[in-house]
Please model this.
Amino acid sequence: MPTPHLEIVHRQEFSAAHRLHSEALSVEENREAFGPCEHVHGHNYVLEVAVRGPLDPRTGMVLDLNQLSKIVTGEIIELVDHRFLNEDVPFLQDVPVFTAENLAIAFWNRIAEHEDGWGEARLHRVRVMESEANFVDYWGPGN
Model:
C-alpha cells in the first residue's frame, strides 16, 4: 500500500497596524491606489501555514504540529503581534508595500528556513487573512 500524503494546517491570530504606501508612487497615486488604507490602520490577522508530506508510520504524523506551532510563534507571531509592521519588525524591512500579498511572501521565507528539519514534509501554503472576507494564499516561489 502506498504511503498516504496529507496536508496539515496550523492557524494563529495576531493584531497589527500597517500603512499601504509605495515609494514608487506619487502622493496622489498612493491615495488613488490605496484609498483610506493609505493611512495607518490595523487588522486582526489570521495566519495559516500548511505543510504537505507523507504520513510517518512510526509517529502517525506528517510533522509534529507542536513543532510547527513553535516555528510560527517564534519566527512570526512574537515579532508582529501588536506592532506597526512598516517600522517595528526588522525582518520586514525590505517589504516594498505592506500588502497581505507581500506579508505572505515574507512569512513564507521565514518559515521555509526550517524545512530541512522536517524530513520529507514541505511548506505548501501560507495564508494571510486581513478579514473574514479578504485573504491571500502564497504557494512559494515558482508556483
In short: Residues 128 and 136 are 5 Å apart (CA to CA). The chain has one domain: 5-16+42-138. The two ends are 30 Å apart (CA to CA). The domain at 5-16+42-138 is CATH 3.30.479.10 (Tetrahydropterin Synthase; Chain A).
